[in-house]
Amino acid sequence: MAGREAAGGSPGRVLVTWMGFDPEGPRTGARLRAAGLELRLAPKLGARSGAEVAELAAGAVAAIVSTDPFDRDVLAAAPALRVIARVGVGTDSIDLAAATEAGVVVTTTPGANTETAADHALALILAAVRRIVEHDGSIRRGEWRRGGTLTPWDLNATTVGLVGYGSIGRAVARRLRGFDVELLVCDPALREDGDAELVPLDELLERSGVVSLHIPLTPETRGLIGTAELARMRPEAVLVNTSRGGLVDERALTEALESHRLRAAALDVFADEPDVPRGLAVLPNVVLTPHIGGLSERSIAAMTEQATEHVLSVLGGRADPATVANPGVLDRTVAW
Hints:
The protein is of the alpha/beta class.
């Protein structure tokens, strides 16, 4: 990989922005140091610009990252970089084409947090339908409102639409079957599936009492749920998003909730994280969590260990194609 070498023959440096990384862990930080690598710890605790990431990545041969922006300019500023190990599966913050051109392998951690993410999606569905947050607030105000305007709704025997039916969508479906729901699925990648009824997006929106999003953010899916799509949903419907904030037009969603054209929403992700639109934050019929859908003690450990393994594997020329998000880079020489 010509031109992407550690400067001056010094030990390779690994930039770590993933906040769950254990620098002393025997299967994480200690393992990297045993391989002769240095660590630069810079946990991502808020929004970062490309310029800030470029400064952090200068001189690094590898990066274990959160949702930091790795665009073409960042990659150009880090000529020694050989691998970006994304903790999680989303790669919308990384310019994969530019990484491939630069000979940088981008890896993800598929499967490490599937069940955790499915747990959280179900938790948000139940929290919205059973109005948990509204009742919690009512109790804390000294009230005891067991009915009236705070009467909860049912998940049992309702119709649930899953937009996206990959590993997480299927894990959510397994959980939902215990509630005896009618399950609808919209996923253009599927032609048939014996476990669910496949329908176009418009039909799913029109029929579902709960709509839950489980698709990646791509140029084709950005803004997938906007004013027209929200208008197709039933007034008693609930929208749940644990995928990416950019899938939903947040202004249109706010207007639909304020005007009671939509019953409720539950959101773990936002278009401009960590900023949450004030219009959504003040609504009582919205459940909000800070992009923690895939996080638990167990999943954090598993993802971090996988990302560490990916760094060592790629630097050693042993990249696992199943974890590489830009497979076109693999025909290049990747050896530390």
